[in-house]
Write a structure and sequence with these properties.
The complex is a heterodimer of chains A (about 150) and B (about 750).
Chain A (H helix, E strand, L loop, with lengths): L1 E7 L2 E7 L5 H8 L18 E4 L2 E4 L12 E3 L1 H4 L5 H9 L9 H14 L5 H7 L9 H12 L4
Parallel strand pairs in A: 1-5
Antiparallel strand pairs in A: 1-2, 3-4, 3-5
Helix pairs in contact in A: 3-6
Chain B lengths: L3 E2 L14 H4 L21 E2 L4 E3 L5 E5 L8 H13 L6 E5 L2 H6 L19 H26 L6 E4 L2 E4 L4 E3 H8 L29 H5 L15 E7 L6 E5 L10 E7 L25 E6 L2 H10 L2 E4 L9 H13 L4 E6 L9 E9 L11 E7 L2 E6 L4 H12 L6 E5 L13 H11 L6 E4 L2 H6 L7 E9 L6 E11 L24 E9 L13 H19 L3 H8 L5 H14 L9 E10 L9 E11 L5 E11 L6 H21 L4 E2 L2 E2 L18 E4 L20 H13 L17
Parallel strand pairs in B: 1-5, 4-5, 9-19, 17-18, 21-22, 25-28
Antiparallel strand pairs in B: 2-3, 3-4, 6-7, 7-8, 9-12, 10-13, 11-12, 14-22, 15-20, 16-17, 16-19, 20-21, 23-24, 24-25, 26-27
Helix pairs in contact in B: 2-4, 4-5, 9-10, 12-16, 15-16
Classes of the chains: A alpha+beta (about 150), B alpha+beta (about 750).
The structure holds FE2/S2 (inorganic) cluster (2 copies).
């Protein structure tokens, strides 16, 4: 067991768990923050995407014992980190179907827009490697472009 | 506002007797409701089991069909709002309670598959929800009339406000409590469709999106309960096998581990009363399994991986690979005519010289909804409470009764959001296994999670279908004089050997092919199958529309023209869909070698009745490099579901279902080794990403305007698959008779 202190959405949190526990399960089971989703556990789907020290990561691949002092933003904290516009566009453009992938999609999209405020189609294709089984890709792309103010 | 109300409150039950009108869902119970039914109660007045209006005008619509991504709940609320004439921004939806339905003997039941019903625009469900809205509106008017001492006929209702010519106004919420007690002498007539102002006219986004986009929506996996523990589950890798031995002591000292429990199907007690499950229990039977229960899921998962387990794989282990299964199915098929699906004329009378033959196959595929299967259950000696993301609460409820053996009055169910389903969450086997685990660890809520690998290996897969086709073409017209089809289904569950998408299609029902003989046979195997986004339809569409293409080529007729000839005597909308999709795709243009357009059409759910179901035509445009790299450049779809209630919701479903079908055709195949499914995660079972997705153009111009508002989530999965194969043929002359296409060599020179 390791006792680790990290910041999640600006709040210091102390977690006492097995050191190999992935951040995904730390967030969900230990901190009760279930907005971050489990889809595959093997870095394939992106449903678990969060921002770790400002970078999008797949939280199912990040063990707790490397996280002392880390700064994490999850979907629950995205609005406060400038994501409110994206979230509003997700609503306006009726992006989600079942919605299960969308926390990860939003976290990946916010990361992309931070790095490339005016992404090209190719940039979006390259950055957005999350799986959506419902097939919302055209709308995710449209919402990212709208947020960036680039032509659809 | 505009929220999806989540069921958080613990669920109190009462045997309160309700007035007769309630069973129709029209009038309210006598007096104010005292029973918080499942969803959190607001302070509002209940107009029926379906509708509650709060003093602040919030309208809550409780819907028995849970949201799975298709907008079913928002659609039901739109229906109510159309007649209620309320402010849409004040509408929210909540999950209806199956326990309430049971205790009140059917408060939510209407039409086909009555609780679940499936489709918010289905004829009966639409009528019921419109009537509920109209009734509530007239009762609000009657309450205002009583206050103002004016005739109700002088009152208008709009945007959640009641108005009188004298200038008096009241908000709905101000009179809701009085209105809820009013019983109308007669139910009001519904508006004619032509006067609708919301349905078909506006496209509000789904009501639950703000919750989804902020991470607050509670899916099954997100349920949190005091004292909850977590379980990781493993069932016998070969379906139908048994647990031989295990050594719990090897993991009991691992961190957090509380128990190792064995699931033995013989311990299913069965329902103590005659069950009213939607589909029966045959497809939800308990499997042998073992689960580790721990404080946290990660601990449970690690301990399960470390647990020494030995299985008796059983008879299913004889299938060394999937091809062995498929060969056996084909061999059975070749033994002579099986079950007759359709027989017309006499195939021996055909005299044409051009013969077309083809043998087609579609393999096992997994639904792969993104939320892994899971359910949380709390079982005690005399009660059970279950939180689940089922597609059909009526099925789930009775599975829980069956697996606990408790009287239905002792079982409570809570619906959650679901992260996709595509047929996988309909039968309740996921819930049954969870209840079986929780039963072995009584008194604590146990969240049972199937890992992604467990979901892949314990699926209820698409039925593999292997179909041999044969046609004799008329020497003059080139159309088939005779056609035979012999379908080999794989899997022992007859519920999933459905000829829909095949023998019901107009080619076989319009009389255009005078001599027909369609047969099927089935090979029972251990590998379990189930519903996969329109059961069997998606396979049949691939077969039939590829074969029609082959007939067109053999006849030397453009394949669009050929279909138009075959469909000339059927509903015009079929031809309209084909022509529109073709035109928009650039059909008829001269394309460079390596590029091609393919087209296909199909209809779900039932196509042998005119003006029925949803017809979808898809035109797919591809480019293939000489090395065989395939690029799907564009997809155009045209459809007819009669009319649409929410145009953008329909567009979203067609986009998503088209991409689903495209992925099925391109990528999806499960393989078998010694009776067990091999693939365990998305690295072995590719799902398209953003970069793989072509522009999808959805064209509304072929809508017939017929009064039906048919379902749209399934039909587009079918035609895109043969359209893709036909496009590849057109581009490089290679005919693909088996999916997935990624395994075919598409190189050319
Ligand atoms: S759960 Fe982490 S990538 Fe899928
Ligand atoms: S919206 Fe369902 S998986 Fe993306």
């Amino acid at each position: 067991m390791s006792k680790i202190t990290l910041r999640v959405n600006g709040k210091a949190q102390s977690v006492d768990a097995d050191g190999d526990t992935p951040l995904l399960w730390v967030l969900r089971d230990h901190l009760g923050m279930t907005g971050t989703k489990y889809g595959c556990g093997v870095a394939q789907c992106g449903a678990c995407t969060v921002h770790l020290n400002g970078e999008a990561v797949r939280s199912c691949q990040v063990p707790l014992d490397g996280l002392a002092g880390a700064n994490i933003t999850t979907i629950e904290g995205l609005a406060a980190k400038g994501g409110a516009k994206l979230q509003a566009l997700w609503h306006e453009l009726n992006v989600p179907q079942c919605g299960y992938c969308q926390a990860g999609m939003l976290m990946a999209a916010a990361d992309l827009l931070k790095k490339k405020p005016k992404p090209s189609d190719a940039d979006i294709d390259e950055a957005m490697t999350n799986i959506c089984r419902c097939g919302t890709y055209p709308r995710v792309k449209a919402a990212i472009k709208r947020a960036a103010g680039v032509a659809a | 506002m505009n929220a999806m109300r989540i069921d958080r409150r613990s669920f109190l039950v009462s045997t309160a007797v309700v007035s007769g009108g309630m069973a129709l869902g029209i009038t309210s119970a006598e007096g104010a409701p005292t029973v918080p039914w499942g969803p959190d109660m607001a302070s509002g007045a209940e107009f029926s089991a379906w509708i509650e209006i709060a003093p602040d005008d919030t309208v809550t619509v409780r819907v028995p069909t849970p949201e799975c991504g298709n907008g079913a709940m928002s659609q039901a609320a739109m229906n109510v709002a159309e007649e209620l004439q309320c402010d849409w921004s004040k509408v929210q939806v909540a999950f209806a309670s199956i326990r309430r339905d049971f205790d009140e003997k059917g408060s939510y039941q209407t039409g086909f598959l009555s609780f679940f019903s499936g489709h918010s625009t289905g004829k009966q469900r639409l009528k019921t929800t419109l009537q509920l809205g109209a009734s509530a509106r007239e009762r609000l008017k009657a309450a205002a009339a009583a206050r103002w001492q004016v005739p109700a006929s002088e009152i208008t209702a709009a945007n959640s406000v009641l108005s009188h010519a004298s200038g008096k106004k009241l908000r709905y919420g101000q009179v809701a409590a009085e209105a809820a007690k009013i019983v109308l002498p007669k139910e009001p007539a519904l508006k004619p469709q032509g006067e609708w102002t919301l349905l078909g006219k506006k496209s509000p986004p789904k009501l639950n999106i703000p919750e989804i986009a902020s991470g607050k929506a509670v899916y099954g996996l997100d349920v949190k309960l005091p004292g909850m523990v977590h379980a990781a589950l493993m069932q016998c890798p070969v379906h139908g096998g048994k647990l031989k031995s295990h050594d719990a002591s090897a993991v009991m000292k691992m961190p957090g581990v509380r128990a190792v429990v064995v699931i033995d199907p013989a311990k299913t007690p069965g329902s103590p009363v005659k069950a009213q499950s939607t589909f029966g229990f045959g497809d939800s039977l308990c499997q042998w399994g073992i689960a580790v229960i721990a404080d946290h899921y990660w601990q449970a998962k690690k301990a399960l991986a470390a647990l020494p387990v030995e299985w008796d794989m059983g008879g299913g282990a004889k299938w060394q690979d999937a091809e062995a299964i498929y060969s056996a199915a084909k061999a059975l098929r070749d033994k002579g005519p099986g079950r007759d699906l359709k027989k017309t004329g006499d195939i021996a009378t055909a005299t044409g010289k051009r013969i077309v033959d083809g043998d087609y196959g579609t393999p096992y595929a997994e639904n792969a909804a993104l939320e892994p299967l899971n359910t949380t259950a709390l079982v005690t000696a005399d009660s059970a409470e279950v939180w689940t993301n089922t597609q059909d609460m009526a099925q789930a409820f009775w599975v829980a009764v069956d697996e606990t053996g408790l009287a239905p009055g002792k079982v409570n169910m809570h619906q959650t959001f679901m992260g996709g389903a595509f047929g996988r969450r309909g039968q309740g086997d996921d819930l049954r296994m969870a209840v079986a685990v929780a039963k072995a660890y009584p008194g604590k809520p146990v969240k049972v999670i199937w890992s992604r690998e467990e979901c892949f290996r314990q699926g209820r897969y698409r039925t593999p279908v292997f179909t041999k086709m044969h046609a004799v073409l008329d020497d003059t017209t080139g159309l088939p004089q005779a056609m035979t089809a012999d379908i080999g289904y794989v899997g022992s569950r007859p519920g999933f050997h459905l000829p829909l998408g095949f023998s019901d299609q107009p080619y076989f029902n319009s009389g255009v092919i005078p001599n027909l003989h369609l047969t099927s046979s089935a090979l029972p195997v251990n590998v379990l199958s189930g519903a996969f986004r329109a059961p069997c339809f998606n396979s049949h569409a691939f077969v039939l529309e590829t074969f029609v293409d082959e007939c067109a080529v053999a006849a030397g007729i453009d394949s669009l023209e050929y279909r138009l000839k075959l469909l000339a005597s059927w509903d015009k909308s079929w031809s309209d869909c084909l022509k529109l999709a073709a035109e928009k795709s650039g059909w008829g243009q001269k394309l460079p070698k390596g590029e091609g357009i393919g087209i296909a059409i199909s209809c779900w759910p039932v196509a042998n009745v005119r003006k029925n179901g949803t017809v979808v035509a898809a035109a797919v445009r591809v480019a293939i490099t000489p090395e065989g790299v395939l690029m799907v450049k564009q997809i155009d779809t045209a459809f007819d579901c009669g009319r649409v209630a929410n145009p953008d919701a329909v567009r979203a479903q067609i986009e998503g279902a088209t991409l689903f079908g495209l992925n099925v055709a391109l990528n999806e195949e499960l393989t078998v080794k010694d009776g067990a499914i091999v693939e365990g995660n998305f690295d072995e079972y590719p799902i398209s990403h953003m970069a793989d997705v072509p522009p999808i153009n959805v064209h509304f111009g072929a809508l017939s305007g017929h009064e039906r508002l048919e379902i749209i989530g399934e039909a587009p999965v079918g035609p895109v698959q043969p359209a893709l194969g036909n496009a590849i043929y057109s581009a490089i002359g290679k005919r693909l008779r088996r999916t997935p296409i990624r395994k075919a060599d598409l190189s050319w020179s």
